[in-house]
What does this fold into?
Amino acid sequence: MKIQKIDKELSAILKIIIDSEASLEILVSQIHGDYRQSAKNLCRYLLLRSFDLRKYQDSLSDLGVSSLRTAEGYVLSNLYNVVKNLKLIQGIPFENNLNLEIIGYKKSKWLVKKHANMLFSQSHKKHFTEIMVTLPNEAAEDAQIVREMVQNGMQIARINLSHGNMDIWMKMVQIIRDISEEINQKVKIYIDLSGPKIRTSKIEIRNKKNKIKDRISIRVGEHILLTKKTTLGKSSSFGKNDEQLEMAEVGISIPEIIDDLKIGDQVLFDDGMIRSHVIAKNEEDVELVLTNCYKLKLGSHKGINLPNTKLRLPSLTKQDIEFLPFVCKHADMLGYSFVRTREDVSNLYKQLNTIAAIDMGIVFKIENQEAFENLPQILLEGMTRNKIGVMIARGDLAVEIGFERISEVQNEILWICEAGHIPVIWATQVLENLAKTGIPTRAEISDAAQGAQAECVMLNKGDYINDAIKVLKNILVKMKEHSSKKKNASRSLKIAKTAINQLLGNNFTLPVQAKTP
It folds into this structure.
């Protein structure tokens, strides 16, 4: 690609970003002072990634000019310097008249570390990436479990309110505090709110031998009813020619979900192992047809994912609100499950303000498709406070968006968070085989190494969890010597275009760009 063409097109993109400054000033007016520059940079990044930049990258590298692959944390400075250098190479005079607030490369790295230290209450260490570990319920009765985790490298203890009870959680908190005092080292506490858990209801069916079963047999092509009605479940019946005579029936833990489902929506059960879609509905039931059954039985209390459904369900349940005072009293960070929109963020902040929890660290768990699609808006609303982070909850997220897309999506989340200088927690199945069996797979070692891009990596419990902590610590120390974040080709991002249209409104229109051949 000729240098004149690159110069012309990148100069036009730079002008668009500069001309948007007045709109960005209004947009970030309510942002916390610690995040105002970062919020601007995030918006500039969304503008930049609304364009397909791939066609410029190789030519810029051939010219010895910094490519735009490294632009996440310092967008305006990077693009401005690229355009300036292109003009200097051509011998074209360049007026240095940029009077806008900008962030350079060094400052962008400093801001990420500053924000991570505010969230994690931690000063810079040899390996900057924190290690978080989920505590098993047994840790409430055995302080040695927690002590060994801390000795091997755990810096943040995670308590999941989806499991256990107040007595167990309080014992865990006390043990963590005692060990922190014992070793004279702060062990942070992260507590997850449960959020609305959409699951199948209890299944209890008597078979011909009068034994109670807690699951029903299923097959591809079978029709089943998902119902609001109180039911202990029912199996389908089939005729001599294998035709379905009667539909199975399964209840749902949150009945109002039925109202939000539409014909054609996907309904996924048991971590996506059973896949279906809606073919009919009435006020009480939806009729589903099973399209994939990687398991041949559907059991009680199995998770349900609804990737295509716009839910009107509040992200904060009554129980979450009841637990907020406990969480804010004892935790350094609160994990916000099931967040989907910026309104969800606003709602949480209002609840925290009512109990004067103004200094609580908040981690937004990105675990469903709607949250991913609304990520920029969630972050900008989140930035009205200054102690925030994001967890890439890859389990539910992979179920909703499809396993083949999880690598792409987790990278997009990393880029967008880096643009906002927001610390990230890399979670779900990290070194899982090692933690559970004592033997790691090659793939999970590579995955853990990729987690070094984040500011924190989370491990789940297992019999060999201390081996996993030690291995992860060694990986993080070594990887930080080799790389900082990850750079990729820069095609336009749908999430960026959508966010810009929503944030800057109808008065702002991106020009049409020629497609990359």
The first helix runs from residue 3 to 19. The two ends are 12 Å apart (CA to CA). The mean pLDDT is 91.
